[in-house]
Specification:
Layout (H helix, E strand, L loop, with lengths): L10 E4 L4 E4 L2 H10 L24 E5 L4 E4 L4 E3 L7 H12 L1
Antiparallel strand pairs: 1-2, 1-5, 2-3, 3-4
Length: 98
């Protein structure tokens, strides 16, 4: 098994500055039934390719604007840990309500 570039629960930022949290595969499946994927800069898009996250070339991210995207690793970067983890808690709270 290959090492993942991003682990579920990590905070990331896309190229436009939107912050989000990496989802686990189960969270992604649950949310993808309720939400459509937003095509944002840096997202993974290939014709005829199924959107199955592998955490190496396709990373599922839930952003602070309540959108879900499968991102390329080059389109996102890790955020330093916030000592208060306010954003992480807010995103987790929203995830629990969906």
């Amino acid at each position: 098994m290959q090492k993942r570039l991003y682990e579920p629960g990590q905070m990331v930022m896309d190229m436009a500055g939107s912050k989000g949290i990496v989802l686990s595969y189960n969270e992604f499946l649950r949310l993808s039934e309720k939400m459509s994927n937003k095509q944002r800069p840096g997202c993974f898009f290939a014709l005829g390719c199924c959107p199955t996250p592998d955490f190496i070339t396709k990373v599922p991210v839930f952003f602070e604007d309540n959108t879900l995207s499968i991102m390329r690793p080059t389109g996102i970067r890790r955020l330093d840990q916030d000592p208060d983890d306010i954003l992480r808690e807010n995103l987790r709270r929203v995830l629990c309500t969906h």
